[in-house]
Amino acid sequence: MTKSILLLAAGLFATAATYAQSSIEPAKPGVTYGKAVTADQAVAIPELQQQLQTDTAFTGKIEGKVVEVCKKKGCFMKLERPTGDAIMVKFTDYAFFMPQNIVGKTVVVEGVARVNETSVERLRHFAEDAGKSKDEIAKITAPRKDIVIVADGVLVVK
Predict the structure, then answer these.
(1) Domains of the chain, with CATH numbers?
(2) Residue 96: how many CA atoms within 13 Å on its side-chain side?
(3) What's a Pfam family this protein contains (predicted)?
(4) What is the rounded CA–CA span in Å between residue 158 and residue 43?
(5) pLDDT in tens, 75-134
(6) What is the Cα Rg of the chain in Å?
């Protein structure tokens, strides 16, 4: 009986995740997710990095290119940075999600950026959601200090 309930719950979760992704508007210039955002006064990633060397947080707009999105339901994305590492972007209260076709698009996110330490457990969770292999996930053995953005809205620029 317990197995049946667990299987039913897993099936419902998978169906909900699939439905959630299919109901998200595809990414194209001008489309906004979450709070309405404009591109004016957005800072580039290098400017953000420089500002966070002296400040504990940055509140405002940040422009960047999307290099990864959560494969399960679009619950996070990552922005490219010149060093090759990506910046994690999460969404306030999981209020909205990103479509799979946003990878490669330039976006402006509005929210708060901070330098955070992410636990090994959380890093492994993100890697799993991103569709990484078990070997790649197993290589995550230390916490990581990095910039994390919590966005209220995202505008697709190009």
Answers:
(1) 2-156 (2.40.50.140)
(2) 17
(3) DUF4920
(4) 16
(5) 899 999 888 889 999 999 888 999 999 999 999 999 999 998 889 998 898 888 888 899
(6) 17
